[in-house]
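Entry 12.
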Amino acid sequence: MIPIAVNVALSVVGLSMLLCAYRAIRGPTLPDRIVAFDAWVSNLIAVVVLLTMRDRIAFGMDLVLVIAILGFLGTMAVAKYLKGGDIFA
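Predicted 3D structure (C-alpha cells):
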C-alpha cells in the first residue's frame, strides 16, 4: 500500500512542479517568478524525500539538506539583488 501512495504523491508533486515551472517562466513580475522558484525547490525536496522512501536511498536526506540550502541561498541572493544592492557586498 505504501508504494502505491508514494507513486500517487510523486504524480501530484510532479504536476505541482510543472505548474510552478510555468509560473516561473510566464510570471508577470519578478517577485512572482522568485516565489514560483522557491515553491519549485520545495517540491523538488518533496520528490527527493519520496524517492528516498520508495527506493530506500541511503544518502537521500543528505541530498535534501543540500538542495534546501542552495534554494535558500538562491532566494536570498535574488532578494538582495532586488533590494538594489550588490549580491556579494
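Annotation: The two ends are 52 Å apart (CA to CA). Residues 45 and 66 are 10 Å apart (CA to CA).
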